[in-house]
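Closing statement on the pantoate sub-project.
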Amino acid sequence: MKVFTTIKDLKAALDTYRSAGESIGFVPTMGALHEGHLSLLRKCKEQNTISVVSIFVNPTQFNDKQDLTNYPRNFNKDCDLLIEEACDIVFAPEVTEMYPQEDTRQFDFGQMDQVMEGKHRPGHFNGVAQIVSKLFDAVEAHRAYFGQKDFQQLAIIRKLAELGKYSTEIIGCPIVREADGLAMSSRNMLLSAEHRNAAPRIYQTLQKAKQMVRSHAVSEITAMVKREVESCGLLRLEYFEIVQTDSLQTLSEITAEIPATACIAVFAGKVRLIDNLEFIPHKK
Ligand code: PAF
C-alpha cells in the first residue's frame, strides 16, 4: 500500500495507473475506520482495479471546534486495517496541503442543506463540499463510495457531482450496523459504557416508527419517537424528520407514492449520533 501526503505525488501515481487503463475507485474518509468504511472499500475493490482511500479530518466541516478536537484519530491502526483489505493507495494530507489558503467558496444546494444536519450544523455541508470537491479534483476517480448513514451528505454530494459536472460516479452503500442495531460510526468509540448501552434504542425507535406509518399521522410518529428515545434518560433527541428521499423536503404526510426516509439525530451525552431508515421505497 502506498501512502501519499501531497496532491502532486498522488496525481502523478494515479496518472500512471490511468494511462495503463486501470479504473480508479475512491473512498473518502476522516479516518477512525470501522466496518462501515471497510464495506465501502470492499465495494470499491469489487468495481475498480485501483482503490484509493483518503484519511483527512476536514476542519471546515466542523461547526463546533470542540467536536473537531475530540474527533477520533488513529492513523497507524487505520493503515493496518487498510493493508489487511489490500487497499492500494492512502492519501493522508496535512491541513495546509488541502487548504494552502482559506477556501471562501460558497456552494448553493438550495433547500437541501437548509434542513436537518444543515440546519443544526451551520456551514457543515459547505465544508463537506469544499473538501470533497478538492479530493475529487485530486483523485479524478471513476467511482466514489459514500455510506448511506450520512443520508443527507450523500444526497448533497450527488448534487455537488452534478453541479460540478464531475465524471466520477457516486455510489451509495448500505448502512453497516453493530449486532444490536447501532449504526457504525467513528463517533461510537467516544460513547461512555452507559450511553453505548442506550444507543441501540435509536434504531429500535426508527423501526417502531416505520411500523406506525400506515396507521398514524406524522405528528403522532414524531411524538412517539421523542418519548421513546428520551425515556431512558440518557439520550436527547435533536431532530426526527420524515423527508422525501431525493429532494430531502420534509413530509407532513406520508403516502405510498412518495419515496420517504426518516432521519434522526440524537445526543448520547456529548456525542451526537445520526441514523436513518427508508420508510417508503422508490417504486421499482
Ligand atoms: O463522511 C465523511 O467521513 C466526511 O464527511 C467526508 C465525506 C470524508 C468529507 O470530509
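The domain at 186-277 is CATH 3.30.1300.10 (Pantoate--beta-alanine Ligase; Chain: A,domain 2). With this model delivered, the sub-project is considered complete and its resources will be redirected to Aim 3.
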